[in-house]
Structure to design on (140 residues):
């Protein structure tokens, strides 16, 4: 089965999403549904870009996101799906699509997630140690 990255975009004002009642809970429910379905390979939520991003271009290091935009990458998920249409169906269910953000779906060409000691038991949420997140051929 092919793997797809789902880039999750949110408004640059992180507080806007948190201000909506149930916004975080909706994302938690969506994550749990993906885990139960067996489609989720990996998922990472990112801290708000305006507060924590540092960009590098050549020798220049700048505080803040790489580009100034209305939306920023808020997280990424890697899912397994039989084809792009199935991956798009999974992506459409992400709460970001109705909370003022959106998602971008791209085939995974390759990747790796290392298991670390003291990861707080989260290793079960990731592929096995030393395993690629794209053990199968890339989507065509």
């Amino acid at each position: 089965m092919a793997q797809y990255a789902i880039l999750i975009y949110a408004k640059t004002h992180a507080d806007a999403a948190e201000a909506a009642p149930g916004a975080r809970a909706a994302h938690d429910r969506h994550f749990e549904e993906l885990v139960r379905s067996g489609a989720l390979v990996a998922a990472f939520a990112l801290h708000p870009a305006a507060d924590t991003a540092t960009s590098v271009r050549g020798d220049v290091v700048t505080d803040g996101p790489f580009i100034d935009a209305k939306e920023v990458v808020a997280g990424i998920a890697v899912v397994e799906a039989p084809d792009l249409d199935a991956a798009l169906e999974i992506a459409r269910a992400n709460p970001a699509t109705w909370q003022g953000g959106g998602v971008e779906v791209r085939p995974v060409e390759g990747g790796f997630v290392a298991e670390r000691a003291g990861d707080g038991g989260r290793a079960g949420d990731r592929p096995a140690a030393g395993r690629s997140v794209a053990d199968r051929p890339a989507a065509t």
About this structure: The longest helix spans residues 23-37. The first strand starts at residue 2 and ends at 11.
